[in-house]
Amino acid sequence: MDENNRCTYILPKKKRKCRMMVKNGKRFCGEHAIHDPSEKDRIPCPLDPKHTVATNELEDHLAHRCNARISSGDPWIVENINVVSQKTEDSDEEFRPSEEELAEVIELVEKGYATAESVVKTRILEAPLVEKHLNEVLGTVNATHIKHLKQISSIIGNLLADDLLHDDEAHGIFELGAGKAQLAYWMAKTTPKCQFLLIDRMGARNKWDNKAIREDAALKMSRLRCSIEHLDLSKVDTLKGVKRTVSVCKHFCGNATDGGIRCLVNAVNNGFHMAGFALAPCCHHRSTFEEYAGHDFLKSLGIKTSRHFSALRHIATWATCGMMRSDQPTDYLPENPDELPPEKKENLGVKAKTILEVGRGRYLETIGYSVAIYRYVDSSVSPENLLIVGTKCP
Fold first, then answer.
1. Which residues form the signal peptide (predicted)?
2. Using one digit for the tens of pLDDT, what is the confidence trace for 257-315?
3. Rounded to an integer, what distance in angstroms lies between the CA atom of residue 391 and that of residue 147?
4. Of all helices (H) and strands (E), which one includes residue 116?
């Protein structure tokens, strides 16, 4: 493809050109057209300046299409109820740590990891129906589909192992960041009498919840479209008749995980009865110092400032960036942390992710739950393989 047909905007974080196609005679794609001095018809979205909108579509965009819009009239919508506002001058999400800051936090990670790892266990379990399906489709679907099925199988297996999934009308499942709802689909196959409430800020095509309902018209499964930061779970009518509710999420990214955790904590503090939870976070590079829920644990390890947190977040990316192996010995320690051997960086990345999840687990313990953290799939399936499981203390 001719590079002249590609958007010329340089992505600040990736330091490369945007790869989207452009119209004939244009330098920028639709999303980056705002950077064209001759473009007067596109502006940053007033609700979320991370994306742009055509001025002649602004009213409809704000009223019906923007994922950042807040619905009015629903009692469970309370603006920013699950958001923490403690902005500081140096808490920029885009901040890149210096070599000295990375070296300092690497030392703290190495020292603190023993404390974090002591509470993490490997528990890879299976759900019979998902495993049966896996065996049937093996060789006919791509590796990504297989990966997700293995993760779903183990999440359901862990829920069953801790008595958190019941085929009972009095039992409810609340899924945060449901997306296309493949996890909910297989939970419903396992426990069809259970009631399901799914929430996601975005719409999605080809949703698995629609497929589940087509296959079983008696299934009680509903969906709310709402950003997690505005949801007061204690006021959602759908779950009020349920005696036991369990909250789950699979790959809830970055700050969304912390917003979701705060949503659960606020709901419990407001009288919502939650029997337990199973949370599989991901994308730690999208977490921010302000919103992260596990500050007390990090402080106990000496990770106290927003700049420390930015360095920790940066180190966590090393677990998932697919670095090539090197011939350097694993104990080789260059002056520049970015020149560490790939194996060493990957190992440090795993340690940083573990510390972040243990911090979240410790925070959830403060509202009366016994919390365990499991490596629920092998790292060869996904490096994002930690599951936070909690059960209500007696």
1. none
2. 999 999 999 999 999 999 999 999 998 888 999 999 999 999 999 999 999 999 999 99
3. 27
4. helix 99-117
Tokens for 335, please give them.
């002056």
Largest Cα separation within the chain, whole Å, is 68
**Phi/psi of residue 323, each to 5°?**
-70, 145
User: How, if at all, do strands 386-392 and 369-375 pair?
Assistant: antiparallel
The owner of tokens 């194996």 is 343
CA–CA separation, 310 and 304 (whole Å): 11
Q: Output the CA angle 304-306-311, nearest 5 degrees.
A: 90
CB atoms within 10 A of CB 62: 15
Tell me the residue type at 115: T
Q: Are 151 and 377 in contact (CB under 8 A)?
A: yes
**Contact (CB, 8 A) for 68 and 43:** no
In angstroms, the CA 287 to CA 283 distance is: 7
pLDDT tens-digit series, residues 316-347 = 999 987 654 444 444 444 556 667 888 899 99
Alpha helices in 227-304 (DSSP H): 255-269, 295-300
- At 237, list the tokens: 């009518």
7 in Cβ contact with 16 (< 8 Å): no
Phi, psi (degrees; rounded to nearest 5) at 309: -65, -40
